[in-house]
Amino acid sequence: MKKTTAKLILSSTLVIFTLVFQSCEQKQQQQTKEIENETIVESEKPEYFLLRPDIEKAYGYSHAVKIGNTIKISGAVSMNDEGNPTAIGDLEQQIKNCYADLEKILNHYGCSFDDVVKEDIFTTDMAQMIEKSAYRAEIYKNGFPTGSWLEVKGLALPEFMVEIELEVHKSE
Predict the structure, then answer these.
(1) Which residues on adjacent β-strands are paired with residue 165?
(2) What number of CA atoms fall less than 13 Å from residue 77's CA on the CB side?
(3) How confident is the model at residue 7 (pLDDT cuts 50, 70, 90)?
(4) How many other C-beta atoms can be found within 10 angstroms of the C-beta atom of residue 100?
(5) Could you tell me the CA-to-CA distances from 95 to 58, 60, 123 in Å, in that order?
(6) Order of strands across the sheet with 116-123?
(7) Could you give the 3-state DSSP secondary structure of residue 129?
(8) Which residues pair with 168 in a beta bridge?
(9) Of residues 114 and 14, which shows the higher confidence score?
């Protein structure tokens, strides 16, 4: 009888220990999943940036949105802080003005043109754009990003000849 009681007690203790261990292990796995979910949600929360808040609010867009390590930058055009076109009729200067605004946005996020992975250019005059595009070599010193160049019938205002948008990968 003593052997049977001892075996029963030992067996019951083993079952209890196994159940407690499994419960602790499940709780640890759940806590790990919760932490992973919090990290993913936090890192994917969009961060918005307005270069010219009044203009961007009036037209209904953000100049840039950062999610995780990716930053999408809306098309930059040649305009002043009041939203008026600048360098009218001068595509080369409009290109330079676009890159000056884009650089301000990149700097806001601690980035440079070296972090740009995609650049899309929209122009109303492709022949002139190709002719005036040498300035890009001053911007992209370590290689050009991917992207597309598109000739369009028009941009937001008739005075705009070029619009440049970027996608950026920020290295941590």
Answers:
(1) 120
(2) 24
(3) low
(4) 11
(5) 24, 24, 10
(6) 47-49, 64-67, 70-76, 162-169, 116-123, 146-151
(7) helix
(8) 71, 116
(9) 114
SS3 state of residue 62: coil
Which residues, listed in sequence order, are joined to residue 122 by a DSSP beta bridge?
150, 163
**pLDDT of 37 over the 60 cut:** no
pLDDT of residue 171: 83
| Joined tokens for residue 24 | 């602790």
Average pLDDT of span 121-145: 96
CA 104 vs CA 21, 63, 83, 112: distances in Å? 56, 11, 16, 9
The position carrying tokens 């990716």 is 70
Is 50 exceeded by the pLDDT of residue 14? no
Task: Tell me what the mean pLDDT of segment 116-131 comes to.
Answer: 98
